[in-house]
Amino acid sequence: MKQFSDLLERLLYAPGRNTKIALLRAYFATAPDPERGYALAAIAGALDFPGAKPAMLKTLAEAQSDPELFALSYDFVGDLAETIALIWPGTGTTPPDLPHVIDALRAAKRDAIPALIAGWLDLCDPSTRIALIKLITGGLRVGASLRLAKLALAEMGLMDVNQIEEIWHGLAPPYTELFAWIEGRGPRPEPGDTPVFRPVMLAHPIEDADIERLNWLDYRAEWKWDGIRVQLVATPHGKRLYTRTAEDISGSFPEIIDAMDFHAVLDGELLVIRDDEVAPFSDLQQRLGRKSVTAAIREKFPAGIKLYDMLFEGAEDLRALPFDTRRARLENWVTTHRPARMDISPLIAFNAQHELAALREGARDAAIEGLMLKRGDSLYLAGRPKGPWWKWKRAPLSLDAVLMYAQRGHGKRSSFYSDYTFGVWNEAGELVPVGKAYSGYTDAELLTLDRWIRNHTIARFGPVREVEKEMVFEVGFDAAQLSTRHKSGVALRFPRILRIRTDKPAAEADRLEQVLKLI
Amino acid sequence: MSPHPQSWLKTTPQGLYCVPGDFHIDPLRAVPRAVITHAHADHARPGNAHVLATGATLAIMQTRMGAERAGGALQALAYGETLAVNGVQLTLYPAGHVLGSAQLLMEYEGARAVVSGDYKRQPDPTCTPFEPIACDVFVTEATFGLPVFRHPEAADEIRRLLASVALFPERTHVIGAYALGKCQRVIATLRECGYHAPIYLHGAHVAVCDTYRALGIDLGDLRPATVADKAALKGAIVLAPPSAIADRWARRLEDPVVCMASGWMRIRQRAKAGGVELPLIISDHADWDDLLRTMRETGAPEVWVTHGAEEALIHAAGKLQIKAKALSLVGYGEEE
After folding, report:
1. Chain A positions in Cβ-Cβ contact with residue B247 (cut-off 8 Å)
2. What ipTM goes with this model?
3. Which residue from B249, B269, B274 is facing A78, i.e. has the nearest CB?
4. Which of A125, A363, A443, A488 is least enclosed by beta carbons within 10 angstroms?
């Protein structure tokens, strides 16, 4: 348990992805089975203990100290698990094993759980207590995603992370056969009949040089939808909806799962579709991340799929067939099966590159991000091979906004003011924030901005500096949407700095009403 | 019946004032006669006409402020020696906070009051351990006066640091630590844990480390980080003031692991908001258990709290049948 709690603590503070992967890898390489497997399950969110709730722990802790001291402490610390862990008297040095905790919690009757937990808290030091409380109450936001854990495992096994993704959903805690395979001590765990994820094929962004030399007539064109890429897997043994990073989101989209009354693996875009009309991404966001979905939400934001590829028909693997063949198979299959809530993303006919360029220029529909180009003879290959598939996003929207606040970055940027909050003018003549960007500038520009911010600071709020309202950025973004996060009521998608407009006075920056027109 | 300290120990705008002795203790602005408990800048301020303190405190004050500003007449008093000032008997006892730090015992017509300054009970290889002194009124700090503050052993925290150095041998570990006390304690504890490689210092740390060494504290091989090149600092440990660790100065370091040695690192969001990657809970102040234990060990029926989280400590003192009140002195507690 101590090693696991040290890992969680380091992950919480680790600034960068590579540091997190290094920490996870060091842990998985040294922790024993089955502890490391349960740790992986905790990171994956695959553990649930219905009998252990925060309120019960708070009552336990108040009894150990004094309600007034507990209240003063909670007020100071701000986090319940941390307050309980720190206020708990004593420092134990013999924490229970992680597998023991899990087995005992699973076996315990509900009314026996408080005494069980109190006994463990006595055996732990404060940081192990935090880990224990977060683990059993399911509040384990460790600052590392499951994806990073899989990347660490892939590094350990000197394999591609897709090899792990491909079997992941056939595995269960404590994953001993996975570790045996990664360490070369056992065979690859076979997923068997489980509806597992298949690594997806991704496209490269097209550059001007590529546009020049492409043999355009070898390619097929489709709209690039502004939803999320999903894989639909239905076998006689189960049905799953996966994101392109292998996250299982079946529970958030029950109507899609209900419609998957077939045996196939399909590739497509998940969207909110009302009366055949695709809604903007902000509508789909209302559906993402929900553990349970009410009928009202389903009605208001109905989900649908635009299909564009077929990986398996029945048990037959189509991935080694050319795109044109797979496409024909998909079209036939849809005509035959007519699955509810799904249709085919149409091919766009064209005779020359300039016709597509004109379509891309004109693509201002909120549901369209641009175009996809797929070579007719391309096989379905895992990863992001260069050449067979291209994405050709429409030109970004942009606005001129004024720098309002700056914050220092993390890791290599920890000494630089590299995160910028910018705003536009509202009707009252005030600047209101519309977004935050931390990319798009060069290293040289970062140095200049850092110096400028230090010399033009007017107030400090912890790590944040407020600056004089003089610096104008041309900010590029993919879409504007309504949001309650900012005072302006607007948020931008993927904002990045396109240019520093030293030529432009702040008073001439854009106005909120212009941004509202882009929604 | 001896006079209650309340009648002869008063709070004034300059800080705590001993009426019959006619001197201030850790005055917040310059006064004619000052007794200084320790050399941290919030307790030892420049320009007093006459200063009484331990020899080590006077030496550190001269290093930090220059001989002129440290005070007009400087008078050293060793631990355990007694000096009579206008009928008040003054004795200094070790406070265990930093080198030279002292508690001040004042005896006046049979009444005993102890002003402890800042103190800790944990072991510290760089200073003499705290001694509880029996008294009628104990004046205490409460920097960490909440039951969530229980400091782990400093040596255990240093071992976590060394484990990280082994895990990331290509990176420089830069530790934010206050120049007086914390810096030398971290170095000495590293040495005790078997780390004998050179330790690199920010320029602001060099002078006080030199004074510690002149006073007989062994700190091993120390080198300036200011002129060292990036390559030499790969895998090394560097100490710097907290303000420098995540700022421009740190750019000379190779992919630094930012560490901070402070009691506040117990609270995770505090550490995270400061951009700290490896928080080290090392404090030169008493934690909650030690505050309560010290109150009990002095046997004082009454406790006055100078600064910090007074509310919880006063509540807890009440439950121990100790009368407690807050002096609410403003201006202390900036260093930790």
Report:
1. 415
2. 0.90
3. B269
4. A443
